[in-house]
Amino acid sequence: MRIDFSDKNVIVTGSSQGIGKQIAKTFGNSNAHVILTDIVEDKLEQTHQEFLDQDYSCSAIPCNVTDKDDVQNLIKTTYKEHGSIDVLINNAGITRDGLLMRMKEEAWDSVLETNLKGAFLTTRAAIRYFLKQRSGSIVNISSVVGITGNAGQSNYSASKAGLIGFSKSVAQELAPRNINVNLVAPGFIKTKMTEELPEDIKEKYLDNIPLKYFGDPEDVANAVLFLASPLARYITGQVIKVDGGMVM
Ligand code: NAP
Q1: Pairing verdict, β 9-13 and 87-90
Q2: pLDDT for 93-138, tens place per residue?
C-alpha cells in the first residue's frame, strides 16, 4: 500500500524549522494539506512561503502551544477552513539544559509547559473533532532521554517521559473511537537544537550509537508518517525509537 494523505489535513506544531519542518514536508510529499504552525510569526511566514514556492498544499497559523487561546484558534480555524482535522503531530519542544543543582525554576517550568502542557492543550482541543469524526491519528515527539534519563536534562527528560505516560493514557481513552496515539522518540538528530552542543559531547554520543552516525530529520519524519498512516492502524500507545540503535 502506498502512503497517501490526499484530502487529509495534518497539523504539525513547531514546524518552522528542524524536525517539524521536515515532518510537514514529508506529509506534503504524500499529498496532505499541511497546517504549519510555530510560535514566531516571521519565521513561520518564511517557511510557509518556501512551501508555497515548492507547490505544497499548506496554510500557516501562528500558535504558541502553551497559550490556550492560541491553541483554540489553531484547531478551530483549521476545522472551519478545511472541514476536518485528520492528524495532529505534537512536535514543538525546547531545551533548557543544566544540572539540577543549578537549575532555575524558570528552566523547569518553561520546558514542562512547552513540551508537556503544550501537547495536552493541543490534544485536548483536537480530540473534540476526532471523536466526532471517529477517526484521527496523533503522533507525539518524545525523546530517548524520556526513556533513559540524561544528566543535565532532568527537566527535558521529565517532560519527554511525561509525554509517554500522557500518550499511552490518551491512547487507551481514544482507542474505542478508532483514534491512534503513538510516539516517536528520536535519539541524536542533526538540527539547530543539537548543532550547538560542544564537539566533545557530540563525540561521546557518537560512541554510543551502533549505526555510527547522527540521524537526519527525514529519519524521524518517515517514522511519523508511517505511524499516522493506515499502515499503522493496529498500532497504538507505542513508542518507536529513531536513534541508530542507541537505546535497545
Ligand atoms: P528546533 O529546531 O528547536 O525546532 C522546534 C520548533 O518548535 C522551533 O521552531 C521552536 O521555535 C518551536 N517552538 C518552541 N516553543 C514553542 C511554543 N511554545 N509553541 C510553538 N512552537 C514552539 O528543534 P528540533 O530539533 O527540530 O526538535 C523538534 C522536536 O524533536 C522537539 O520536541 C524535540 O524535543 C524533539 N527531539 C529532538 C531531538 C534532536 O536531536 N534534535 C532529539 C530528540 C527529540 P523557536 O526556535 O522560536 O523556539
Answers
A1: parallel
A2: 999 999 999 999 999 999 999 999 999 999 999 999 999 999 999 9
Task: Evaluate: CB of 188 within 6 angstroms of ligand 1.
Answer: yes
Q: What's the length of the chain?
A: 248
DSSP 8-state assignment for residue 140: E
The three cell numbers locating residue 123 = 490534544
Q: Tens digit of pLDDT for each residue in 48-96? A: 999 999 999 999 999 999 999 999 999 999 999 999 999 999 999 999 9
Q: Is residue 196 predicted with pLDDT exceeding 90?
A: no
Distance 1 CA to ligand 1 centre (A): 31
Distances (CA, A) of 196 to 48, 95, 191, 240: 25, 12, 9, 26
* Separation between Cα atoms, residue 45 and residue 70, nearest integer Å: 16
Is residue 156 annotated as part of the catalytic site, yes or no?
Answer: yes
CB of residue 153 inside a 6 A radius of ligand 1: no
CA distance 95 to 186: 14
* List of residues 6+ apart from 203 with CB closer than 8 A: none
Cβ–Cβ under 8 Å, residues 90 and 11? no
